[in-house]
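Exercise 7.
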Amino acid sequence: MRKNSVKNVRINSEVQKEISMILREDLKDPRVDPVRTSVMAVEVTPDLKFAKIYISVMGDDSEKEKTMEGLKKSSSYVRHQLAHRMNLRNTPELTFVLDNSIEYGVAMSKRIDELKNKDVKE
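Solution. The predicted structure, written as C-alpha coordinates, is:
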Protein backbone atom coordinates (compact mmCIF):
# COMPACT_ATOMS: atom_id res chain seq x y z
CA MET A 1 0.00 0.00 0.00
CA ARG A 2 1.42 3.35 -1.03
CA LYS A 3 1.40 6.33 1.31
CA ASN A 4 -1.24 8.32 -0.60
CA SER A 5 -3.36 5.43 -1.81
CA VAL A 6 -7.12 5.56 -1.40
CA LYS A 7 -6.94 2.88 1.28
CA ASN A 8 -4.33 4.81 3.27
CA VAL A 9 -6.33 8.05 3.05
CA ARG A 10 -9.45 6.21 4.24
CA ILE A 11 -7.57 4.61 7.15
CA ASN A 12 -6.15 8.02 8.13
CA SER A 13 -9.61 9.58 8.24
CA GLU A 14 -11.13 6.67 10.19
CA VAL A 15 -8.30 6.70 12.74
CA GLN A 16 -8.69 10.48 13.08
CA LYS A 17 -12.43 10.13 13.70
CA GLU A 18 -11.99 7.33 16.26
CA ILE A 19 -9.19 9.08 18.16
CA SER A 20 -11.28 12.26 18.32
CA MET A 21 -14.13 10.25 19.84
CA ILE A 22 -11.79 8.48 22.29
CA LEU A 23 -10.33 11.80 23.48
CA ARG A 24 -13.78 13.33 23.81
CA GLU A 25 -15.65 10.42 25.41
CA ASP A 26 -13.29 7.88 27.00
CA LEU A 27 -10.12 9.64 28.15
CA LYS A 28 -10.37 10.69 31.79
CA ASP A 29 -6.95 12.38 32.16
CA PRO A 30 -7.51 15.79 33.82
CA ARG A 31 -4.61 17.28 31.84
CA VAL A 32 -6.46 16.72 28.56
CA ASP A 33 -9.46 19.04 28.18
CA PRO A 34 -11.66 17.61 25.38
CA VAL A 35 -13.17 21.03 24.68
CA ARG A 36 -9.78 22.65 24.00
CA THR A 37 -8.16 19.68 22.24
CA SER A 38 -8.73 18.82 18.57
CA VAL A 39 -7.30 16.15 16.31
CA MET A 40 -6.24 18.04 13.19
CA ALA A 41 -4.76 15.23 11.09
CA VAL A 42 -3.49 11.67 11.27
CA GLU A 43 -0.73 10.04 9.23
CA VAL A 44 -0.63 6.25 9.43
CA THR A 45 2.32 4.51 7.81
CA PRO A 46 1.43 2.12 4.98
CA ASP A 47 2.44 -0.91 7.07
CA LEU A 48 0.11 0.25 9.91
CA LYS A 49 2.92 0.13 12.47
CA PHE A 50 3.08 3.84 13.40
CA ALA A 51 0.74 6.83 13.39
CA LYS A 52 1.39 10.53 13.93
CA ILE A 53 -1.55 12.35 15.43
CA TYR A 54 -1.47 16.13 14.99
CA ILE A 55 -3.17 17.83 17.93
CA SER A 56 -4.28 21.44 18.25
CA VAL A 57 -4.73 22.84 21.75
CA MET A 58 -6.43 26.15 22.48
CA GLY A 59 -4.77 27.97 25.35
CA ASP A 60 -1.44 29.24 26.55
CA ASP A 61 1.91 27.46 26.36
CA SER A 62 1.62 25.86 29.81
CA GLU A 63 -1.78 24.40 28.94
CA LYS A 64 -0.41 23.03 25.66
CA GLU A 65 2.53 21.46 27.48
CA LYS A 66 0.20 19.90 30.08
CA THR A 67 -2.10 18.52 27.39
CA MET A 68 0.75 17.02 25.37
CA GLU A 69 2.19 15.43 28.52
CA GLY A 70 -1.20 13.92 29.34
CA LEU A 71 -1.60 12.58 25.80
CA LYS A 72 1.86 11.01 25.80
CA LYS A 73 1.18 9.34 29.15
CA SER A 74 -2.18 7.97 27.97
CA SER A 75 -1.10 6.92 24.46
CA SER A 76 -1.17 3.22 25.36
CA TYR A 77 -4.76 3.55 26.63
CA VAL A 78 -5.80 5.41 23.46
CA ARG A 79 -4.11 2.71 21.36
CA HIS A 80 -5.94 -0.01 23.30
CA GLN A 81 -9.28 1.73 22.74
CA LEU A 82 -8.46 2.20 19.05
CA ALA A 83 -7.77 -1.53 18.73
CA HIS A 84 -11.22 -2.31 20.16
CA ARG A 85 -12.99 0.16 17.88
CA MET A 86 -11.22 -0.59 14.59
CA ASN A 87 -10.53 -3.87 12.86
CA LEU A 88 -6.98 -3.32 11.59
CA ARG A 89 -4.32 -5.92 10.94
CA ASN A 90 -1.97 -3.97 13.24
CA THR A 91 -2.90 -1.25 15.68
CA PRO A 92 -0.39 1.53 15.09
CA GLU A 93 1.91 2.91 17.75
CA LEU A 94 0.70 6.45 18.43
CA THR A 95 2.85 9.58 18.48
CA PHE A 96 1.16 12.86 19.39
CA VAL A 97 2.51 16.01 17.73
CA LEU A 98 1.49 19.56 18.64
CA ASP A 99 0.04 21.39 15.62
CA ASN A 100 0.28 25.19 15.73
CA SER A 101 -1.10 25.80 12.24
CA ILE A 102 -4.38 27.34 13.43
CA GLU A 103 -2.61 29.88 15.64
CA TYR A 104 -0.17 30.64 12.84
CA GLY A 105 -3.08 31.22 10.44
CA VAL A 106 -4.83 33.54 12.90
CA ALA A 107 -1.62 35.53 13.42
CA MET A 108 -1.09 35.85 9.67
CA SER A 109 -4.71 37.00 9.18
CA LYS A 110 -4.21 39.69 11.83
CA ARG A 111 -1.03 40.87 10.12
CA ILE A 112 -2.77 41.02 6.73
CA ASP A 113 -5.67 43.00 8.24
CA GLU A 114 -3.19 45.40 9.89
CA LEU A 115 -1.45 45.96 6.56
CA LYS A 116 -4.78 46.52 4.79
CA ASN A 117 -5.85 49.06 7.42
CA LYS A 118 -2.47 50.78 7.19
CA ASP A 119 -2.78 51.06 3.38
CA VAL A 120 -6.33 52.45 3.63
CA LYS A 121 -5.25 55.17 6.08
CA GLU A 122 -2.39 56.31 3.84
